[in-house]
């Protein structure tokens, strides 16, 4: 292995949300943290080199995004996702969640219905609510161990006048990577009823053998015309702290609306180190990612085996993408499994309820960590379950 993914890094004391907020979130700074979706791995060495080079200059005034920055993203989209994005369709955003805000503000009005599909990344709820749009919940259906979009529910909302859907693909926390066919069906409904698609594809590069990521906007021109796609190098290369995202909006009117909304929120400039880190990652980070993906896949397979052997009654929903595992504890006779794992196993995960009522009895476990760290946590969890 060229990159040391098995090496445990001490992140405590670095103002890491995952490590340094443990007391506040779990009531103890001793729990092993498997919650926030960032990785326990060093970023690609090329990113560090580029940052060191930039930092040497030690002058950090307002900074433009050079053509090479945009090209690095466009080349990545084409190479990794067979998606040819035009330079003029690109916008920046200080993060994917702000991009969802700007998108919703620009394509809908207060009071308009916006669909989300729980269990889903919790900030989606807040994006709709803080912009005073009407939250329309169309829960995914769990059939035979896998989640699927409920197209009947979707059509009902669209027929009743919903103006937009926020799609999460790959879907956090359930790990689905939607197929071309599923996305085409979604697209047909949205086109038929005149709704827009806001597609959060931040996890697009983290896809395993079972899945192929298809950007919904890449499917055809009509769909590209109604879609705003937001993604970033954050999850792919562990660069979330830079808050630098890319937004693809082929439709000129939608793009201008998005830009106006971003300006109304006072955002005009990107950050100097985020620009450097993103470009370095997209131009020189590919071999690192190609080594990371099998490591992550091996983590979840070992996790799955461990659960089968040592945690009877617990199910892992097979992730096709993302580095979060959605664990089903509904058969375990414990009232509050989240608290139980904190107190009895010393392991801090995300409570399934954070993602919606459908997440009751589930926990989200972040497996982007060195296997020895995961194994330790799993042993503690198995021992706690055996003590029931
Ligand atoms: C689906 C999804 N969207 C957005 C984000 C956060 O994006 P950002 O930090 O760029 O706002 C996350 C982080 O976990 C996520 O899982």
Description:
The chain is α/β, with parallel strands linked by helices and 388 residues long. The protein folds into two domains: 17-44 and 287-386, Alpha-Beta Complex (Aspartate Aminotransferase, domain 1); 48-284, Aspartate Aminotransferase, domain 2, CATH 3.40.640. It contains 15 helices and 15 strands. The strands form four sheets. It has a seven-stranded mixed sheet with strand order 2-10-9-8-7-3-4, sandwiched between helices. Strand 5 (141-143) and strand 6 form a beta hairpin. Helix 5 packs across helix 11 (252-264). The mean pLDDT is 97. The structure holds pyridoxal-5'-phosphate. Residues 37, 95-97, 121, 168, 172, 200, 202, 232, 234, 240, 245 line the site of pyridoxal-5'-phosphate.
What's the short version?
The protein is an alpha/beta fold and 388 residues long. It contains 15 helices and 15 strands.
Record the SSE blueprint.
Elements lengths: L16 H4 L1 H5 L5 E2 L11 H13 L9 H15 L8 E4 L2 H12 L5 E4 L6 H8 L3 E4 L3 E3 L2 E3 L2 H9 L4 E5 L11 H14 L2 E5 L20 H5 L1 E5 L2 H4 L7 E4 L3 H13 L7 H13 L1 H25 L4 E3 L6 E5 L8 H9 L1 E2 L1 E2 L10 E5 L4 H16 L2
Parallel strand pairs: 1-13, 3-4, 3-7, 7-8, 8-9
Antiparallel strand pairs: 2-10, 5-6, 9-10, 11-12, 12-15, 14-15
Helix pairs in contact: 3-12, 4-12, 5-6, 5-11, 7-8, 13-15, 14-15
């Amino acid at each position: 292995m060229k990159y040391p993914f098995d090496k445990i890094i001490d992140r405590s004391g670095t103002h890491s949300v995952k490590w340094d907020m443990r007391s506040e979130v779990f009531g103890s700074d001793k729990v092993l943290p498997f919650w926030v979706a960032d990785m326990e791995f060093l970023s690609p060495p090329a990113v560090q080199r580029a940052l060191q080079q930039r930092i040497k200059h030690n002058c950090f005034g307002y900074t433009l995004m050079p053509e090479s920055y945009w090209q690095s993203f466009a080349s990545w989209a084409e190479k990794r996702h067979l998606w040819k994005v035009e330079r003029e369709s690109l916008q920046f955003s200080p993060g994917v969640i702000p991009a969802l805000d700007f998108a919703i503000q620009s394509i809908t009005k207060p009071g308009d219905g916006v669909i989300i599909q729980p269990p889903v990344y919790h900030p989606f709820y807040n994006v709709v609510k803080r912009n005073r749009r009407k939250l329309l919940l169309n829960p995914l259906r769990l059939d035979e161990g896998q989640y699927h979009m409920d197209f009947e529910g979707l059509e009902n909302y669209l027929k009743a006048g919903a103006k937009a859907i926020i799609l999460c693909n790959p879907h956090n926390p359930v790990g689905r990577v939607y197929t071309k066919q599923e996305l085409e069906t979604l697209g047909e409904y949205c086109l038929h009823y005149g709704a827009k698609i806001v597609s959060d594809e931040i996890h697009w590069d983290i896809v395993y053998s079972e899945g192929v990521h298809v950007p919904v906007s890449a499917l055809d021109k009509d769909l590209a015309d109604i879609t705003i796609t937001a993604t970033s190098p954050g999850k792919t290369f562990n660069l979330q702290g830079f808050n630098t995202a890319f937004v693809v909006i082929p439709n000129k009117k939608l793009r201008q609306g998005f830009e106006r909304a971003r300006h109304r929120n006072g955002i005009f400039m990107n950050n100097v180190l985020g620009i450097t880190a993103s470009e370095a990652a997209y131009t020189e980070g590919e071999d690192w990612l190609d080594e990371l993906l099998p490591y992550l896949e091996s983590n979840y397979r070992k996790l799955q085996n461990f659960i089968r052997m040592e945690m009877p009654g617990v199910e892992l929903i097979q992730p096709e993408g993302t580095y979060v595992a959605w664990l089903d504890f509904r058969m375990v006779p414990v009232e509050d499994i989240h608290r139980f794992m904190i107190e009895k196993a010393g392991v801090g995960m995300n409570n399934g309820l954070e993602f919606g009522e459908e997440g009751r009895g589930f926990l989200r476990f972040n497996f982007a960590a060195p296997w020895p760290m995961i194994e330790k946590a799993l042993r503690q969890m198995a021992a706690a379950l055996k003590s029931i």
